[in-house]
């Protein structure tokens, strides 16, 4: 398996394992299946969170040094909901064909074995890049771009995607919903005059994840997520819909 085809769920598990071994913020023992308080649960129940994943990029250690200077490392600015992951202080400019560009695209950490840019459809149109919908890490055959930082630039030959919607969950969450890693679910968001049901929500499961659905900016706007009054996550193809 090459670095460019490593699944994101594998990377996330490796990161969490490394953080626990180093005594970092995710070092609290993980509750076993059936335990009273798995990660993210409240009062013995899963606590579903739906988050908008705005455009961002992931970088390799090598690209961090090229873009921000020799010896540079990512500097955490804000912790993300998933333990061990953060929005870095650093941002980059993403440049597409004919010098179309997006400035100040946030870098997320920690670093990865390959660099990847995640956009919404409107972002990719603005850049003039035909970015395909892909699950994170599945970047073979995707378009590239130029990343520009204060110390240099990087030409990516591939790695620009529209990130497919997905849900992070731990194994207790999987048991609760009757799903496993790699299954598809559906998310219903009820909001005034903008209710939407999203199909094809990929399950990304590992022992330490908290229950959180990621949708992109366009999807969040389409359902007016900020005004949502109800969110429901169900197993895809369960036959529970009313005929």
TrEMBL record:
Its cofactor is Zn(2+). It is found in: Bacterial microcompartment. Pfam families: PTAC. GO terms for cellular component: bacterial microcompartment. Its EC number is 2.3.1.222. One of its GO terms (molecular function) is acyltransferase activity, transferring groups other than amino-acyl groups. Keywords: Acyltransferase, Bacterial microcompartment, Metal-binding, Transferase, Zinc. Belongs to the PduL family. This is Phosphate propanoyltransferase. It comes from Rubripirellula reticaptiva. The gene is pduL.
């Amino acid at each position: 398996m090459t670095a460019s085809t490593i699944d994101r769920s594998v990377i996330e598990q490796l990161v969490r394992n490394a953080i626990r071994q180093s005594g970092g913020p995710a070092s609290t023992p993980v509750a076993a299946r059936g335990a009273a308080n798995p990660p993210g649960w409240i009062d013995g129940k899963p606590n579903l969170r739906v988050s908008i994943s705005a455009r961002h990029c992931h970088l390799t250690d090598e690209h961090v040094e090229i873009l921000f200077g020799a010896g540079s490392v990512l500097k955490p600015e804000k912790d993300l909901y998933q333990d061990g992951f953060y929005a870095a202080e650093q941002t980059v400019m993403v440049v597409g064909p004919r010098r179309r560009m997006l400035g100040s695209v946030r870098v997320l950490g920690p670093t990865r074995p390959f660099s990847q840019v995640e956009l919404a459809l409107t972002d990719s149109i603005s850049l003039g890049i035909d970015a395909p919908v892909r699950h994170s890490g599945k970047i073979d055959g995707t378009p590239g771009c130029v990343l520009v930082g204060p110390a240099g630039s990087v030409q990516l030959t591939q790695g620009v995607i529209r990130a497919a919607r997905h849900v992070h969950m731990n194994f207790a969450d999987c048991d609760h919903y009757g799903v496993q890693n790699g299954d598809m679910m559906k998310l219903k968001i009820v909001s005034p005059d903008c209710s939407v049901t999203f199909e094809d929500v990929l399950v990304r499961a590992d022992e330490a994840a908290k229950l959180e659905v990621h949708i992109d900016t366009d999807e969040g706007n389409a359902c007016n997520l900020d005004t949502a009054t109800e969110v429901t996550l169900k197993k895809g193809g369960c036959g529970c819909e009313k005929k």
